[in-house]
Write a structure and sequence with these properties.
- By secondary structure, this protein is α/β, with parallel strands linked by helices.
- The protein has helices at residues 49-56, 74-79, 98-109, 113-126, 142-154, 172-189, 200-206, 240-257, and strands at 5-18, 21-34, 38-42, 64-69, 83-86, 160-164, 192-197, 209-213, 220-225.
- The strands form 2 sheets. The protein has a 6-stranded mixed beta sheet, sandwiched between helices.
- Helix 3 packs across helix 4 (113-126), helix 3 (98-109) packs parallel to helix 5 and helix 7 packs across helix 8 (240-257).
- The longest helix is centred in the last third of the chain and has 18 residues, at 172-189.
- It is globular.
Length: 261
């Protein structure tokens, strides 16, 4: 990889101990993500996509191997505010306004009142929510709530954005619109994005590379470089180039399903 590395995993293993015995969630995962890349993780439920993101974020501890985030351990990266995390659910506090929800991590980090106001205004503009500062989450649609969640993750200007299937519960029309917005946001900010999805079209549309994972224990079965141009209107999904990449992802998923130890 020619560019500087933002996230690097080497021979990563993670085994959970449960009352019914051991469950290996990840096995021998080795991957480098360059700064400014948009990398999607796709695979069946239980393949370790979210677990990998949680290890990067320091929310789970590997039982083998190593992860580095901007050259640091995940715990050091968290203290350095190296990443923002967007969960499957928006997770907004209903008693706080949209501005109040976006401002929350800045309050915890001790930013000044003026700096908080500047940052909140800037990220709400980025996700096209200017004018909704004083609304409460229950007054917004699901898609708008997720945009507010993304704004909250962007508020402290971390280099890396980790996104765990943020659009999975939304209808197709809203999802398409948010995909377009996310591509524009990535192009504008140059951030490194790790994105979990179950959708082949979403993975192909958004990514510079697509990581295909197998069922548990989660392994990487294919890493696909996406040749599509950075400028991607939605109708690019009807082109032969797009369909060719999607077919390779589909083949990788099938190969992972038939994997036998």
């Amino acid at each position: 990889m020619s560019q500087a590395v933002a996230i690097e995993a080497k021979n990563l293993d993670l085994t959970f101990e449960t009352g019914d015995g051991s469950i290996q969630a990840l096995r021998d995962v080795t991957l480098g993500i360059g700064k400014g890349e948009f990398v999607s993780f796709i695979g069946p439920s239980g393949c370790g996509k979210t677990t990998f993101l949680r290890v990067v974020a320091g929310l789970e501890r590997p039982t083998g191997g190593e992860v580095r985030v901007n050259g640091m351990s995940p715990d050091e990266a968290r203290r350095d505010r190296a990443y923002g995390y967007v969960f499957q659910e928006a997770g907004l506090y209903p008693w706080r306004t949209i501005a109040g929800n976006v401002r929350l991590p800045l309050e915890i980090m001790g930013y000044s009142r003026s700096e908080m106001a500047d940052r909140v205004n800037r990220v709400l503009e980025l996700v096209e929510l200017s004018g909704f500062e004083n609304k409460h989450p229950w007054q917004l649609s699901g898609g708008m709530q997720q945009r507010a969640s993304i704004a909250r993750a962007l508020a402290f200007d971390a280099d890396i954005l980790l996104m765990d299937e943020p659009f999975g519960a939304l209808d197709e029309i809203v999802r398409d619109h948010l995909n377009e917005q996310l591509l524009g946001l990535w192009d504008h900010t140059g951030k490194t994005i790790g994105f979990v999805t179950h959708s082949i079209p979403e993975a192909v549309y958004l990514s510079t590379r697509i990581v295909v994972m197998s069922p548990r224990p989660g392994r990487i079965t294919d890493i696909i470089d996406n040749p599509l141009p950075r400028e991607r209107p939605l109708d690019i999904r009807d082109t032969p180039e797009f369909l060719e990449v999607a077919q390779r992802v589909r083949k990788g998923l099938r190969a992972g399903q038939s994997y036998e130890d």
